[in-house]
Amino acid sequence: MIAFILRKLATLAPTFLGITLIAFALIHAIPGDPVEVMVGEHMLDPVAHQEALHRLGLDLPLPVQYGHYLLQLLHGNLGDSLATHEPIWNDFLARFPATIELSLVAIVLAVLVGIPMGVIAAIKRGSLVDRAAMGLALTGYSMPIFWWGLMLIKVFSVQLGWTPVSGRIGIEFDIDPHTGFMLIDVLMAPDKGAFCSAVLHLVLPGIVLATVPMAVIARMTRSSMLEVLREDYIRAARARGLSPFRVVIVHGLRNALLPVITVIGLQTGSLLAGAVLTETVFAWPGIGKWLVDAILNRDYPVAQAGILIVATVIVAVNFLVDVLYGVVNPRLRGGAA
Amino acid sequence: MSLLRIRNLRVEFGSFPAVDGLDLDVERGEVLGIVGESGSGKSVAMLAIMGLVDAPGRVTADCLEFDGQDLLRLSASARRKLLGRDIAMVFQDAQTSLDPAYTVGDQLKETLRAHTSLRSTAITDRAVALLEMVEIPDPARRLHTYPHQLSGGMSQRVMIALAIACQPKLLIADEPTTALDVIVQAQVMALLAKLQREQDMGLILITHDLALVAQAARRVGVMYAGQMVEQQPLPALFDTPRHPYTRALIAAIPEHNRGATRLSALPGIVPGQFDRPSGCLLSPRCPHAVERCRSERPALLGEAAMVRCFTPLDAQGNPTHG
Amino acid sequence: MTTDMRLNADIAPPSPLRSAWLAFAANKGALAALIVFAVMVVAALGASLFAPHDPVEQARDHLLTPPAWDAAGIRAYLLGTDELGRDLVSRLLYGGRISLGIAFASVLLSTLPGTALGLIAAFFPRAIGTAIMRLMDLMLALPGLLLALCVVAILGPGLFNTVIAIAISTLPNYTRLVRAATLAEIPREYVTASRVAGAGPLRLMFLTVLPNCMAPLIVQSTLGFSSAIIQTAALGFLGLGVQPPMPEWGTMLASARAYTDSAPWVVTVPGLTILITVLAVNLIGDGLRDALDPKLKQA
What is the predicted ipTM? Predict the structure, then answer.
C-alpha cells in the first residue's frame, strides 16, 4: 500500500516541474519586455530601463532566471502583487479558504444529489423518473452557470428575498478570520445570527457551482450502475435471497462507484473553473475572482502565481483520487493470493 | 409429496418461448440431471424457479410448487426468505458470480446473517466450517481473500459453500464445472456428490455433458427447444433411450463414433423464435416423423419413464406407435 | 437449379452510414435537437438576411424597450432592446454567427492537430509518444477555462485569441482519445496485414487506422463544440473574450448584468439562447454516441 503511494508520488515530480515551467514562461511569453509589461509602457529612458532589467535580474540568461524562480518557490516566495504591493502568498492565503469552502459545499451537494439521482434513474430505467432525472442532468450539464447564477439571484434574492445577493456573510457581522473558513469562524464569534447568515450566503453560490458536477455525477452513476446491475454477481446475490437494498447498494453501488470516484476527482478542475465564474457573479472573495481580476488588470505576478497554485491543486487532487481508487479497488493494488 | 413440482412451466420473452411447457418432479434427497444443448431453456427454467426472470420475460405455469409452497403466488419478501436458505443455486462462472469488492468471508457472513440468527464469532466459526466442508485448505486465512485472488476451482468451491451455507433442501447447479478443467471438474463433482449425500439435499444438475450426468445423477431429463422430451432413471436412459433426440445425443458421443469420419448428428438446427413448428418441435429433423408429428404437439407421458413422442423408440431403437 | 446470386436489395444490410443515421433518428430527442440546431445554423448564417436591424445601431429613444408581448413593447423590436437601444433579435442572430463560428473554428483547430499528435504518439510510442503524452498531461493540469484564461493572459482578449485559447485548452482531449483508440487498433490483424503489404506509417495512420477511430472522435468533437460555445460565452462574460460592441452572447450578458432586475429580458434572452444551443448540441452528441457505440448496435 505504501509502496503504491510512493510510486505514484514519484510520477508527480516531473509534472510539477513542468507546471513551474509553464508559470515561469507565462511572463516571458507575453509580447514585449517584462519591464515594459510591469511599468505599462515605454516610459523609461533606456538607461533606467536597463537598470530596471538588471535590478530585477531580467538580463540574466533564461535558465538562470528559471533557477532563481524555482529557488524562490521553494522558499514560499511568490513575489509581490503589482496592485497591492503585498506578498502574493499573503493575498493568496487570505482568499484561498473562501474558494475551498465554496468548492467543498458544491462537491458535497453534487455528490449528495447526483449519486442518488443516478441510482434511482438506473433502477427505474426507461421510466418517467429516469427520463426526468436524465433530462435535468442534461440541462445542468448544458447550463451557462454565470447566467444561472444571475437568474437565481434575481428570483431568490431580489424577488423572494430568501437569500443574500453577494458576499460571504451579512455586513452587519464582524467576524475574525481565524481559519478563513466562514462556517468555522462564525462558531467562534459571539453573534448568534452569524452562522445562519453564513449558511444563507453559501446556498446560491453552492448550488450554482454544484450544477455541472452534479449533472456529470448523475449521468456517470446511472451508466455505471446499469453496467454493474447486469453483472453475474448481482444475479448471484439475488439468488441468495439478499434484500433489494443490499443487492443494489452494498453490491451494486459499491462496484458502480469506482468510475464515479474518478469522475468526481476529475471534476476538481472544472470545479475551479466554475469557481472563477461563480465568484465573479456572487462577488465571492476567493482565488477565482482574484485570478480574473489579476488578468483583467494585468497584474502578471498574481496571474502567474495563481495559475501555478491552481495547477498544483489540481495535480494534487488527481493524485489523491488515484490513491483513493487504489484503496477502493483491491485489484489495483497488485496483491497476490 | 415431491420437493419440487413443476407442471407446464412457460417462460416467454415477447413471443419467444424460451421454456415451452416444462414438467418436472424432484424428490427429497434425489439427484436429477437435466441435459440439453445451449438454447434448450434449461438455465432459464431454473432461473424461473428461483424467480430471477426479469421483465420482459413472463413466467407462467399450471403448477410451480416447492416444499408445498406455491412459488407463483409467493410475495417478494417470502421468496427472499426461501432463496439462499431452502433453495440455492450455483452458477457456471464462479469468478464472475462473486462480488470482486468484498472478501470471501464478507460474502459468506452476509448470507449467514441474512438467513440465520448467528452473530459475531458464531458466524465466523460457521464460515470457516463451510470452507472446510468444501475442502478449501487453510480456511481461516481464506476468509480474507478476494475473489480475484482465487483460482477457478477455488472460486467454485466458495460458490458451493455460499449455496450450502444454510443447509438448503434443494440445490440447483447450473453447469457448475463447465468453466473448469477436467481434473478440477472431477474434484468439484465429487465434492457436490459428497455434500448431497451428507446433507440429503435434492440436487438438480444442469449440464450439456452426458458423461457428467451419467456418474452423478439417478434420473435424467432431456430438454429440447424449451421442452422436456424425455425423463428416465439411469442407466435406462442410456441403455434404452425412448426419444429420437436422446438417441441422437447419445449417438453423437465421440466414443460411439470410433472409426467414423464424421460425428453422427441430426440434420437441421434447433428451432428459434421464427421457425417453431406447430407440431412436435423435433419433427423437421426427426428421422421417424409421421404426419401426426407435424400437426400435433405430443404430451409428456409415462410414469417412471416419461417421453414426449408419438412414435417413441422401443428397446431395439425402432419407433413404435405410442 | 440455378440460383440468382445477386444480392436482393431488400435484404442487403444497410451501409454503416445509413445504419448509424437510422439509429440516430430513432432517438426522438436527438432528432428534435438536430432540427433545432439546423435552424440555428441557418439563422446564424443568414443573419444579414433575417436581422431586422443593424446589431450595433443604437436607437436612442428606445433604450431598454421590453419584448413585443409586453405592454410597453414595440413590434419592431421583437425581443426588446438593450441598454444602448440595440435590437436584441439582431444581436442574437449575429451573435450566433460569432459563437457558432468560434466553436467551429476552435474544434477544427484542436481536432486536426490533436488527432495527428494522437496518431503519432501511438505509432511511435517510445520517445516521441512519451514526450507528447507528457506535454498533454501538463496541459491537462490546467483544464478548460483555466488554460483558456492562461492563454488570454498572455495574448490578450479578443475574438481571434478566444479561438486560439479554446483550441489549445481542448487539444489534449483529442490527443488522448485518438492515441487510446489507435493503440487498441494497432495490434489488430488488419493493421498487420496492411503493414505486411507494404503500407508506410503515414498511410497506416491516416488511411488504415484512423477511419476505425472515427466514432469516439466524432462524439468528442460534438461535445467539444458545445463546450466551446460555453467557454466563449464565459470568457465574454468575464470581459476576457469577444469585446463589445460585438454581439457575442456572453459579452452581452456582461454589460446587461446591471439591468437584471429593471430590464430582465436583456439578461434572460441571451442566456436562454446559450442554454438552448448548448442543450441541442449536447443532445445531438448523446444521440451520436448511442448511435455509434458498437456495444449498443443490434448485431
Answer: 0.86
